[in-house]
User: Fold these one by one.
Assistant:
Number 1:
Amino acid sequence: MTSGAPAPASVPAGVDPYLPDRAPSGLDVDRYDLELDYRVTTNRLDGVARVHARAAADTDRVSLDLVGLRVSRVLVDGKRPGRYAQRQGRLDITLARPVRAGERLTVEVHYAGAPGPRRGPWGEVGWEELTDGVLVAGQPDGAPSWFPCDDRPGAKAAFHLVLTCEAGYEVVTNGVLVSARPRASRVRWEFDQPEPTAPYLATVQIGRYERTPLVAATGGTVPQDVVAPPRLRAAWAHDLARQPQMMTLFVDRFGPYPFPRYDVVVTDDPLEIPLEAHGLSVFGANHVDGRRGSERLVAHELAHQWFGNSLTAATWQDIWLHEGFACYAEWLWEEEAGGRTADAQARAVRTRLRGLPQDLVIGDPGRDAMFDDRLYKRGALTVHALRLEVGDDAFFDLLRAWTARHRHGSVSTGAFARCVADVTGLSPEPLLDAWVDSAPLPDLPARRR
Ligand SMILES: [Zn+2]
């Protein structure tokens, strides 16, 4: 078990080892208040971000990630700071007076520009113009393309977001819609999201969409809307028809759904891959073909609400705790829907992985292999190996205990090992050493009777 291994000496505290070029923010952010004025036609963003935080240590400087947008004004607790400067994707602020660790401060940033995706090791990530609208895909480092933040998965915070744009568009973001008020030819949308979330899971979706309830808010069910262009109505109506059954299955297996609602946005443009955000998922027009051709991805993205969004890896190194579980949820759904059993799928995937290079350690895949498909599949195999080892009853008790214990929190492989030991009585180290912290592909354990 090497999770929780200390970061290399060259990476300072407060920096994710997979994002080593960042500076520590010096802040523990607990809420972002974002007030955005956006023009879809010209891609012009004017924003005011109020970052409510505590000082992480005694310090006289703090720093936020912000890429491609120009800052015009900074206030700290309503007053001008010593000075500020933008460089290399960061906003560095020298405080007018030093603060003590734990002291509260509000950093207010006025900024503007033409937002666009951030280019880096993972391609183009972040704010993106669609043919007629906007998509934000923040994973893993795109959040600073539209607001100043501490862009680490472990730096979770609540959000309050106001966005004003032209009328005629549907705006979707995280949390619950408070109001949508027309003002002349524009509409002011206000959303509130009290649960803490990682900045990469914050999103804005704008398009010429219609919003349709898939499951209304009645009888203790999780309300689910679909937000999509009218032309795709028949296709999504078929392809997403079984999502409510998936929700029922996952609530039973994983424990209560962690957020007040779950929405699906389907963009008018095709997308390479769907993506999860806090309380919603985004699919491309190509993912609704009217034949449920992407149904496994519908299950995958829904499962991320538990694994990734409610329980978020403290650092990117532990991304298998997101992708392995979401991939396993695909197998659970296929079995529930009358397809192959999870066990049969696991054995087929293991056979396939055996033919691929075994040079990936999923407990520390390295920055460039974070999204390697082998990590997803081997992560799911790890989950299945545990299930075989402890038996079905203890396994599903474990999943429910895991999501309850760390609900809305930050997690690590070490925390998972402790939960396994507490709930099942198994000493998980040999299994996790072999599956998570070593490269060669182990055999699946014999099935427990
Ligand atoms: Zn995923």
Note: The chain has three domains: 27-204, 210-305, 313-435.
Number 2:
Amino acid sequence: MNVKKISGIAAGVALAFGMMAPASAVTLTAGDLKITFNAFDAGTVNYGNSASVKCTSVVACDNVAGINKAPNSFGSEDTWGIFSVQSISKVSDGSAIYTAGQGGKFLTGMFGGIMDTAVEVAGSLSPTTTTFGTGGWLNMYETTTNYDSSFGPSGRLGEKGYNGITNVGGTLALEAVFGAGVSGGNTEYTYNSTFNNSTIGGNGLGYLDVLSGSLYDLFNTNSQIDPNGNARDLFLKTTFSQTGASAAAGWTVDASGDVLGEVGEVPEPGSVALLGLGLAGLATLRRRRRA
Ligand SMILES: [Ca+2]
Ligand SMILES: [Ca+2]
């Protein structure tokens, strides 16, 4: 019986496509902003059920006997996937700034490039796998259509492309990379996930730095301090599991989660007005207020 893993960022669901919503969740925190999204994740699994350290380098992890390499992965990559932002809200009062489809706009994207660099299996009755990764990127696009996860891993178009996300004429909203330092005392790792070998349910976390995109100013907050003291822009937290929808499409798992990032000043005049502005308006508003 194959042990499945997910070091995924998320798994989501496109309700518009008639799929069941995932039980898991992904959040990105950026100061007072929280991005909640759904995602589907392709991940390398099956490091075995015997309790031990399995590997402590990218090459050694690639060569662990019996693993199931993430489908359609590039190079030593072990985690990649797609996501759709469900909402952006303010942490301070829970008010909504954006919800999927608002103003005819969707925020979808891809993440990938996370390479398992240290993997350990613990326990015997119910083994769990913990992975520490290096590398990793996340690109978010503003489009006029939601993603379609039913393409599965085969919907990937090159390393940083996906059918229905990057080939539909959208604009780059956010380009980000995972920053090293997610694990206290270990300065090199960018992503950490733990999952139960039999249920493939688990969670992961990482910190990201934004590089560019139309929402760069909004999320370049340097507000999320990782366990090694680095000031990152976004904190990613995900829980994941496998659902019928993800399995049917060939994904390893689906997840949802939040991304958090501090925003120096909360956009005003508040959620109601912003709902009408849409995201482009939101970014414009921020630039104006900064000026
Ligand atoms: Ca690998
Ligand atoms: Ca920054």
Note: The two ends are 59 Å apart (CA to CA).
